[in-house]
Design a protein that fits this description.
heterodimer; A: alpha/beta; Rossmann fold; 2 domains; six-stranded mixed beta sheet; four-stranded antiparallel beta sheet; 12 helices; 10 strands; disordered C terminus; B: alpha/beta; three-stranded antiparallel beta sheet; 10 helices; 9 strands; 25% strand; globular; binds adenosine-5'-triphosphate; binds magnesium ion; ATP hydrolysis activity (chain B)
Chain lengths: 281, 239
């Protein structure tokens, strides 16, 4: 449903060029969750931003992004505005800067509901409260009136998820959407995302540095290194038999944390501690 | 080193921190875990005096130098970096303000490079503005900046949440090594128990603004008393 073909995104930095994304190709099918993984700085967010043309004009973007038989990179801004948020919705990596500081949380969710689902004011407000409950914000009836700065980091992140849910998009780009959440809430949010995918046959590009999450929800994985795809395949295959030393290293590094160097802890086999890495190690 | 007595913070009707008392000993690494919204960042801000408590006090062994001796790595690196100030200047600023290196330009530049290198960023990043960095790169600048002022007490609020394990491990090792070498004291906030288990000697668990469990790492991890702590330990992301 979404095809990225030979995408390159270069930034100008002083006299030099940063090849943040370098000739990358992959596709995501309807009803599929594709995991996009790679080290910090490998180009994951830049790919996400390039898909929706949210890249500064000074940068050069080439290649094709095919969605519904059209190349998004060649669409004019008014066409893109129609696609952003309604057909393709994005959960940004940095929730605080992507929320509007002068609108309440409730207003921001309601705005989306009225625009995309044609609800009236009252309906939108009620649904916004429900959505906040869905992402486990306590006292949501009261908290809808808060402004973003009054929410904690993890609560802001969950508001972004609520907004994405409100859009009912056809394609979802989620950029590290659960980094601020502990495993208990994280598991619920992931369940929500999987449910959403099943209900609407959504295609999802899920960006994360967490291999535990990848193993749990992604059917396929693309591994990036320095702006290039170094490995791509079915999730099971990547885990059981990573081809690239780079991928092996990413998977292996989990062990250092899941087996801390205390004798009393290593006796427990580290399994208990692998909250984040999941049972994979 | 720091003593917190009956600290409470209300934001309107919301009680973010409720009657917390706690001692942080010189040289320890205290882990703070708890659900999203349980009051961790609010507690951290009050300890640093960035917001004032509704009631209660924070006692510090030498209040006068609090600003320099305490540093915080904010949870949201974006808000702590001025978008119009280059990375190098942002890291160099505390060096100059606190007169940590002789203010010769070369000394400052050398130290900035060192700090960038410590957090695995190329020296050339000194000339960039924050928007030209990835999420995880910005998080690392926050750490470099906090280390720049040679703090004695460092609060780290989810400092590695945006980093992949490979860099996470490097940064945690670095923080551990610096702590041992300079005998620093850490208050380390994280939602990831494997990170806390790796970094901390003692663990405090918060829920709903209150401390529900405190103990040595071994005790808490091997024998959690609270339901929430148990859940954190058990959760293996069953979806
Ligand atoms: N506007 C810009 N100008 C110059 N370089 C940039 C710009 N934006 C990003 N970069 C660089 O491009 C590379 C890729 O950045 P990107 O944000 O896509 O990484 P990422 O994989 O999302 O990393 P993270 O996991 O840390 O969020 C990084 O090295 C970053 O420094
Ligand atoms: N400036 C503020 N105004 C109003 N309410 C606030 C403010 N700052 C925090 N709160 C509220 O106080 C409570 C505790 O927030 P805090 O940021 O301390 O949580 P946290 O434990 O750090 O959560 P997270 O893990 O999500 O970062 C939350 O309900 C939050 O909405
Ligand atoms: Mg990113
Ligand atoms: Mg917080």
């Amino acid at each position: 449903m979404l095809e990225v073909k030979n995408l390159s995104t270069y930034f100008k930095q002083g006299d030099s060029t940063v090849k943040a994304v370098d000739n990358v190709s992959f596709s995501v099918a309807k009803g599929e969750i594709l995991g996009l993984v790679g080290e910090s700085g490998s180009g994951k967010s830049t790919i996400a931003h390039s898909i929706l043309k949210l890249i500064p004009a000074s940068a050069s973007v080439s290649g094709e992004i095919i969605f519904e038989n059209r190349n998004l990179l060649q669409l004019a801004e008014p066409e893109l505005i129609k696609i952003r948020g309604s057909k393709i919705s994005m959960i940004f990596q940095d929730p605080f800067t992507s929320l509007n500081p002068v609108l309440t949380i409730g207003e921001q969710i309601a705005e989306v509901l009225r625009f995309h689902q044609g609800m009236n004011r009252q309906q939108a407000r009620d649904r916004a409260i429900e959505l906040l409950e869905t992402v486990r914000i306590r006292n949501s009836g009261l908290r809808v009136r808060d402004y973003p700065h009054q929410f904690s980091g993890g609560m802001q992140q969950r508001v972004m998820i609520a907004i994405a849910l409100a859009c009912e998009p056809e394609f979802l780009i989620a950029d590290e959407p659960t980094t601020a959440l502990d495993v208990t809430i994280q598991a619920e949010i992931l369940r929500l995302i999987v449910e959403l995918k099943e209900k609407f046959n959504l295609g999802i590009m899920y960006i994360t540095h967490n291999f535990g999450i990848v193993k749990n929800i992604c059917q396929r994985v693309v591994v990036l290194n320095k702006g290039r795809v170094v490995e791509e395949g079915e999730t099971g295959q990547i885990f059981s038999n990573p081809q690239q030393a780079y991928t092996q290293r990413l998977i292996e590094c989990l062990r250092v944390l899941t087996h801390p160097p205390t004798p009393s802890l290593s006796k427990r086999g580290g399994g208990v501690l692998s909250a984040d890495g999941g049972e994979l190690l | 080193m720091i003593e917190i007595k009956n600290l409470t913070k209300y934001f309107g009707p919301v009680c973010a921190v409720s009657n917390i008392s706690l001692k942080i000993e010189q040289g320890e690494s205290l882990g703070l875990v708890g659900e999203s919204g349980s009051g961790k960042s609010t507690l951290a801000r009050m300890i640093l005096g960035l917001i004032s408590p509704t009631s209660g006090v924070v006692l510090y062994n030498s209040i006068g130098k609090l600003r320099q001796e305490c540093q915080i790595v904010f949870q949201d690196p974006q808000t702590s970096l001025n978008p119009r100030i280059k990375i190098g200047e942002a890291i160099g600023e505390p060096l100059i303000i606190h007169k940590i290196v002789d203010s010769g330009k070369l000394n400052v530049e050398r130290r900035i490079k060192e700090l960038l290198d410590m957090v695995k960023l190329p020296a050339s990043y000194a000339d960039r503005y924050p928007h030209a960095l990835s999420g995880g790169e910005r998080q690392r600048v926050g750490i470099a900046r906090a280390l720049a002022s040679d703090p004695k007490f460092l609060i780290l609020d989810e400092p590695v949440s945006a980093l992949d394990v490979s860099i996470q491990v490097d940064i945690l090792k670095l923080l551990k090594e610096i702590k041992q070498r300079l005998n620093l004291t850490y208050l380390f906030i994280a939602h990831d128990l494997s990170v806390i288990g790796y970094m901390c000697d003692r663990i405090v668990v918060m829920q709903n603004g209150k401390i529900v469990e405190v103990g040595l790492r071994e005790e808490i991890l091997a024998n959690p008393k609270q339901e929430y702590t148990r859940k954190l330990l058990q959760s293996t992301l069953a979806v």
